[in-house]
Amino acid sequence: MEKGFFKLPWEKARDSVDTKLLAHEGEIYILTRSNGRVNKERSMRKRHLKKLWKRLHELQGQKLTRDQLLIKLGEAKKEAGRAYSLIDVNLHGKDQEISKETFTFTLDKERLSTIRRREGHYLLRSNLSEENPAQLWEYYIQLIEIEQAFKELKNDLSIRPIYHQEDHRIESHIFIAFVSYCLQVTLKQRLRALAPGLTPLSVIEKFAEMQMVDIHLPTTDGRKIILSRYTQPEKDQKILLHQMKLKLPDQPPPKITSGKNIVF
Question: Is residue 147 part of a domain?
Answer without folding.
Answer: no
